[in-house]
């Protein structure tokens, strides 16, 4: 079965895409068998527009599809595999006016800090698009090997001007967090994030016992001090 993961489907969303901004989406073919991907983009006038389809050569056998709308109105995105349309195809995509200004966006939060992110522990960050205009926030996280299918970020629009993103790294090392708005990188993107090993249950328990002993020692010291000066 083919799927279009929600985390990387900005280019087929019904709203948020705009003229001149690259619209991206990814198609997974891991469990679909053999076949070729075909993408047809129809603009509001019924004419076809170019779509670049790139095979990512990853373990989920994904294809990244990118097209750039040239006019406002309702586009139709038809996706076929082995000659047959995939589930939910065709996708109806509303294209709005000129793309917003990615330079006015601001990304912040622990998920894009250089340190502090740990393996198998969920992290997050937010993107403010206040004053940036029309556009969709899109995020791709590359693992230390450059693969972008290992970590699948969840992108949620909390309000008209605020987006929430969370992800879980599954291995140690330097990750690249790429954040886009209206098809363009936001300031300081990509963010280099060093992922460290998480603490084991044994380490957590040892740390807890150490802290307990430290607190007990302090309490005993205070008690002896009070007795000594009585």
- The number of helical elements comes to 1
Strand content: 35-45%
Number of strands: 18
List the helices and strands in order: EEEEEEEEEEEEEEEEEEH
* Apparent shape: flat
- The CATH homologous superfamily of the largest domain is called Immunoglobulins
Based on the coordinates given, report the CATH architecture of the largest domain: Sandwich
Major β-sheet profile: 6 strands, mixed
CATH class type of the largest domain: Mainly Beta
Cα(first) to Cα(last) distance is 79 Å
Low-confidence stretches: 1-7, 200-210, 214-218
Describe the model.
With 230 residues, this protein is mostly beta strands. The protein folds into two domains: 6-98, Immunoglobulins (Immunoglobulin-like), CATH 2.60.40.10; 102-196, Sandwich (Immunoglobulin-like), CATH 2.60.40. 12% of the residues lie in helices and 40% in strands. The protein has one helix and 18 strands. It has one helix at 201-228; strands spanning 17-19, 23-28, 37-42, 48-49, 51-55, 62-67, 73-81, 84-85, 91-98, 106-108, 117-118, 123-128, 137-142, 154-159, 162-167, 173-181, 184-185, 191-196. The strands form four sheets. Strands 1, 3, 4, 7, 8 and 9 form a six-stranded mixed β-sheet that branches. Strands 11, 13, 16, 17 and 18 form a five-stranded mixed β-sheet that branches. A hairpin with a 5-residue loop joins strand 3 and strand 4 (48-49). The longest helix has 28 residues, at 201-228. The N and C termini lie far apart (79 Å). Belongs to the filamin family. Keywords: Repeat.
């Amino acid at each position: 079965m083919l799927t279009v993961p929600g985390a990387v489907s900005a280019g087929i969303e019904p709203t948020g895409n705009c003229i001149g901004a690259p619209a991206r989406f990814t198609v997974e073919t891991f469990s679909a068998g053999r076949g070729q991907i075909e993408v047809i983009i129809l603009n509001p006038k019924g004419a076809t527009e170019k779509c670049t389809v790139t095979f990512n050569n990853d373990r989920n056998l994904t294809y990244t599809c990118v097209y750039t709308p040239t006019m406002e109105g309702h586009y139709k995105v038809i996706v076929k595999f082995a000659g047959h349309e995939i589930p939910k195809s065709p996708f109806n995509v509303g294209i709005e006016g000129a793309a917003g200004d990615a330079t006015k966006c601001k990304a912040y939060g622990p998920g894009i800090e250089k340190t502090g992110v740990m393996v198998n522990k969920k992290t997050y960050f937010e993107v403010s698009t206040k004053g940036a205009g029309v556009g969709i926030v899109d995020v791709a996280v590359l693992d230390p090997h450059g693969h972008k299918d290992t970590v699948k970020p969840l992108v949620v629009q909390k309000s008209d001007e605020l987006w929430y993103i969370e992800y879980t790294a599954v291995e140690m090392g330097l990750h690249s967090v790429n954040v886009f708005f209206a098809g363009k990188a936001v300031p300081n993107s990509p963010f280099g994030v060093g992922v460290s090993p998480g603490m084991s249950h044994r380490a957590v328990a040892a740390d807890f016992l150490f802290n307990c002993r430290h607190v007990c020692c302090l309490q005993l010291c205070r008690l002896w001090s009070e007795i000594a000066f009585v």
